[in-house]
Amino acid sequence: MKTVKKIFNALVSLILIASFVLAGYCIFTVIKSSANGTVPQVFGYSFLKVATGSMEPIIPTNSLIIVKKTDPSEIKTGDIICFYSSDPKIEGLPNTHRVIEVQNENGNFVFTTQGDASEIPDEYKVNGDKIVGRFVTSIKAEKVLNVLHSRYFFFFALLIPLCVVIFFEFLHVKKVIAQKKEEKDNAKDNNR
User: Fold this and answer.
1) pTM to 2 decimal places
2) How do residues 127-166 score in pLDDT, each as one tens digit?
């Protein structure tokens, strides 16, 4: 029974430590990306909120989209890509449109894009170095986004695991103190 309990405690500790490391990595990545003015990527994936209806009905307004980092050479006509726009109205901001033409200019890939809800291609082409990644899926989840954008979410996402770790450490320390006290009492009894 003690072995099962030890394995369980070790497993819980491992999961909590892995959760903290993952949370720390994600927070570090988001802070670093924000400082650079780029879209945060966690393990090659980015999560973005769609602000306009340019890709409706495939990607509705206010959807959460998942984008996978992709080498420009792997992108083909028909793919939906996220890229840093060269359009002066939204220059430098991420935009998500469908690729309607791929050109290879001396090893540099250039893409012509168009929103599904638009009848004309985008005026500005997309250079390969401006690609964030290829669209994977969208999730219509306004409530989830509101929760994720909340300060309270991050507070509880960190606080609850921290409290669990502190609780288990408290139990461990209490057990070690009880063992030390028992050893000390046994040593006194043996010295008599």
Assistant:
1) 0.64
2) 999 999 999 988 776 666 666 667 777 677 777 777 777 8
Q: In terms of Cα–Cα distance, which of 145, 154, 148, 133 is closest to 24?
A: 154
- Phi and psi for 108 in degrees, rounded to 5? -100, 120
Going from N- to C-terminal start, the domains of the chain cover: 39-143
- Integer angstrom CA distances of residue 35 from 24, 44, 45, 49: 16, 18, 18, 19
List helix spans (H) across 37-111.
none
In this prediction, residue 145 carries a pLDDT of 62
DSSP code, position 73? G
- Residue 45 contacts residue 30 (beta carbons within 8 Å): no
Q: Please say whether the beta carbons of 131 and 81 come within 8 A.
A: yes
User: Backbone dihedral region of 69: left (phi > 0), alpha (psi from -120 to 50 degrees) or beta?
Assistant: beta
Length of the chain: 192
**Least confident among 18-32, 70-84, 94-108, 126-140:** 18-32
Topology at the third CATH level for domain 39-143: Umud Fragment, subunit A (2.10.109)
Q: Which pLDDT score is estimated for 79?
A: 95
